Amino acid sequence: MRALLLRDLRLAIRAGGGFGLGLAFFLILAVLVPLGVGPEPDTLALIAPGILWVGALLACLLSLDRIFALDFEDGSLDLLATAPVPLEAVVSIKALAHWITTGLPLVLVSPVLGLLLFLPAEAYGWLILSLLLGTPALSVIGSFGAALTVGLKRGGLLLSLLVLPLYIPTLVFGAEVVSRGAQGLTVGTPLSLLAGITAGAVALLPFASALVLRINLR
Amino acid sequence: MTLRVHDLTCARGGLPVLEGVSFTLAPGKALILRGPNGCGKTTLLRTIAGLQPSIAGEIEAPADSIAYAAHADGIKAVLSVTENLQFWAETFGTASVEAAIDRMKLRALATRPAQTLSAGQKRRLGLARLLVTGRPIWALDEPTVSLDTDSVALFAGVVRAHLEQGGMALIATHIDLGLPEAQVLELGTYKARLPEEGAGGFDEAFL
Amino acid sequence: MASLWEYANPLKFMRTTDRLLPVVAWAAVIVTAVGLIWGFFFTPDDFRQGSTVKIIFLHVPSALMAINAWIMMLVASLIWLIRRHHVSALAAKAAAPVGVIMTLIGLITGAVWGQPMWGTWWAWDPRLTSFLILFLFYLGYIALWAAIDDPDTAADLTAVLCLVGSVFALLSRYAAFFWSQGLHQGASLSVAPGTRIDWAYKAPLYVSMTGFGLIFLALVIAGTRTEIRARRMKALVARERMA
Questions:
Q1: In order of start, what are the domains of chain B with their CATH numbers?
Q2: How distant, in Å, are the alpha carbons of A158, C91, C120, C170 from that of C97?
Q3: Residue B131 DSSP code
Q4: Which of B107, B129, B125 is nearest to B117 (CA)?
Q5: Chain A residues with CB inside 8 Å of C133's CB?
Q6: Which label site among B78, B115, B190, C97 has the fewest CB atoms less than 10 Å from its CB?
Q7: Which residues from B are below 8 Å from C243, CB to CB?
Q8: Is B203 within 8 Å of C231 when comparing Cβ atoms?
Q9: Which residues of B touch C (CB under 8 A)?
Q10: What is the number of other CB atoms lying within 10 angstroms of the CB of residue C106?
């Protein structure tokens, strides 16, 4: 288990793209939006929570197809499926590795991008907290989508079509936490719903992902 | 500790390819699976390894006893030879990779990233993985692809040593491995027949 | 008594629906025609909404069927996963395009209704939004069926997607209601006493709902028959190849 996590992290660092790509995409989005919308601080401040959350979502999506596809192509997935580790654990560990290489860096740079988008000062804490609570769900849900499309030659576009609708609840509650925080309202309800979705997804979805992987290996 | 396969039927893409396959593999024995391309050697090995369900019949083997090796070796290009092996050793809960590196004559390559290896060297690394799994039953699919004659002999020696320690090997191959003591199973004789056209039943209507 | 599962046998299913399909199809045409003509031409105009209100006879039945189709897919997927009846998986596959069209009709009639009433074609109202999200879920489901070659693998994967998708579709609906309190009126048919809709509307509405239900049934049966034939053709080709 630990070996798998370390291997995936090592591969992400050495093969490049793992850390960098998602972050760069997130940054580009935060630059493009003001260029498209205009530089008025009030407008930007209003849409900042949504843009940051949508950006995190899309940046997460970018690296999803690598979770299983590479291991599927080189045969590692067959070997992992016959290893004395439950496939559910393999799936969870791989989602965790994806979160560490994609979700966590997004959380860490989000305040800088918030600055670019004139996010109100009260919202920074909620931004970090909501992303910290929400991005694990993005990785776990995404790994389910990646497991569904692992055997397909051109799975990338289909993967987005399958995964993005599943991201809706996380997005709604996550962005709601930040925008309520920005207006100085209480955020307890959306925050606990966000945490609930993450907890449910982390606890249950690996079983579906492992089931789907076994079907795809057959 | 034996592998016992009884009246096994296995399918590829929803169609039965082999039926009535039965054999017993005792400790220290090797069984070579032969047959023309597409006769179901890979399907049989994957079914025995537990990667796909069988249609009918039984496979009796102790839990977690089979190590499967296919055409793809599961090698990560950016990891070194030692790191690749180390990962599988830890995943399978065995201690050391040093013995396996020496056995497959990979010592000189140990610190090289796997992407710089030749096809034959990669294959040797893939077979070294079998040694670090510590599992008694090897299910090997064309293990000697892209190996030169010296490496084939090396591989045969490793298999023989494994058998002498009470291991077992199930090998699908076309070439002579230099394992005269191994039994041979011709899979051509187990070719599955389709059910009769329109023969009642539920889902048979699709076959 | 013969077990219900016997109808999961493709042969039995084909034989039964051979006789059933024309009956259902004609009943669908007649009942829908009666419901719509009654609703459009023989009901009074609403004192507030005028004749615009009559689009309800298309809007509500299609919206209902859009949701029912998904529920049917969910049940059929569960039956496939548990009992491995091919007809069940193929029926789920056949229901998806019908469901997606029903969702589209619901969305379009909603826009046509919304234009004169609210002065806008589209509003990010929770009901409309959750319907749009349902539409996206349908698209993903259909795309996954289309992407996978092996029919049994496709059936397995789409069934799991349908299960997981159902949970997330419900969550999305809840999220949409949480996110915006909208313009949309409450449920059109309330079970509570003191109903808000007069029987003059309700009766033709029930008739056209039945009609849409029959249309759905007829299309799913026809679609399932096509899928069964396609599977059979594939099997025959495979049989040729093996012989």
A1: 26-53+65-186 (3.40.50.300)
A2: 17, 11, 28, 20
A3: H
A4: B125
A5: 165, 168
A6: B115
A7: 194
A8: no
A9: 13-15, 194, 197, 201-203, 205-207
A10: 25
DSSP state, residue B116: G
- Length, in residues, of chain C: 243
Strands B3-12 and B56-60: antiparallel
- H or E segment at C102? helix C86-118
Please report which helix (H) or strand (E) contains residue A126, including its range. helix A123-148
Per-residue pLDDT of chain A (218 residues), as tens digits, is 788 888 888 888 887 656 678 888 899 999 999 999 988 999 999 899 999 999 999 999 988 888 898 888 888 898 888 888 899 999 999 999 999 999 999 999 999 999 999 999 888 999 999 999 999 999 999 999 999 999 888 778 899 999 999 999 999 999 999 988 888 888 888 899 999 999 999 999 999 999 999 999 88
Q: Which residues of B touch C2 (CB under 8 A)?
A: none
Cα dihedral value A134, A136, A138, A144, nearest 10: -150
In angstroms, what is the C-alpha Rg of chain B?
18
Bin C196: left if φ > 0, else alpha if -120 < ψ < 50, else beta: alpha
- For residue C154, how many other CB atoms are within 10 A of its CB? 18
Its ipTM equals 0.91
Task: Find where tokens 């009942």 sit.
Answer: C31
For residue A114, what are the contacts with CB-CB under 8 A and spacing of at least 6? A48, A52, A123, A124, A127
- Contact indicator for A5, A96 with CB cutoff of 8 Å: yes
B72–A80: do the CB atoms touch at under 8 Å? no
Q: How far apart are CA A150 and CA A127, in angstroms?
A: 33
Q: Are A22 and A64 in contact (CB under 8 A)?
A: no
- The distance of B9 to chain C (nearest Cα, Å) reads 16
Are A74 and B50 in contact (CB < 8 Å)?
no
Q: Which of B29, B75, B67 is nearest to B48 (CA)?
A: B67
Domain locations in chain A as residue ranges? 2-217
Residue closest to B46 by CA, chosen among B157, B142, B165, B110: B142
Interface contact flag, B205 C239, Cβ < 8 Å:
no
Quote the longest CA-to-CA distance of chain B.
Answer: 63
Longest pairwise C-alpha distance within chain A: 58
Nearest CB to B76; choose among A11, A78, A84: A11
Q: Are C183 and C125 in contact (CB under 8 A)?
A: yes
Residues of B in contact with A15 (CB under 8 A): 78
Judge whether residue C194 has pLDDT over 50.
no
What would the two tokens of residue B17 be?
């390819």
Return the bridge partners of B56, or none. B9
CB atoms within 10 A of CB B202: 18
Tell me which H or E stretch contains A73.
helix A66-73
Closest by CA position to B50, among listed B153, B177, B135: B135
Crossing angle between the packed helical segments A41-62 and A104-116, to the nearest 10 degrees:
160
The values of phi and psi at residue A122, to 5°, are: -65, -20
Distance CA(A157)–CA(A127), nearest Å, equals 29
Residue A160 to chain B, least CA–CA distance (Å): 26
CB contact under 8 A, B76 and A82: no
Question: Which residue from A97, A216, A63, A49 is spatially nearest to A147, judged by alpha carbons?
Answer: A216
